[in-house]
Amino acid sequence: MARFVRNLLVSVCFIGYFPFASGTLTSIVAAVLYVLFMPPLSTFGFILFVVILLVVGIILVPFIKRAERDLGHDSRKITIDEFIGYGFAVMFLPHSLMIAIYALAFFRIFDIVKPTPIKQLQKLPHGWGVLADDIVAGTCANILIQVLLIIFPQFF
Q: Which of 80, 88, 99, 115 has an alpha carbon within 20 to 30 A of 121's alpha carbon?
């Protein structure tokens, strides 16, 4: 039973078991949930959102570590990191469908391509690397969108 619950959590309700593109599918689910259920937030709301993402991530690291023993290091079945990473991609941004789409696209690009700093984080042990690289990928996507919002506000 404990393994079932752990795998349910780390695979985001077993989305990670989808036969292909499970990380992208989990990110899409996160984006849809964001668009449909996340109300526009105040600055305090965003800070609380980030704290919740970090706390949930930290709580789940031991689950990720144990899941890696069964499923392999950074297994494609472990997708909670994409879910949390997407949250970082949309933090402190205006709430809109276009922001959600840009955040999804840029987050997935950073997560898949893994520029050097992100790639190095993935090597952290004990489940930390699984989560850290996606948090940084989401943060990079967020920063890019923040800059684009200033330069090209008409696209949003």
A: 99
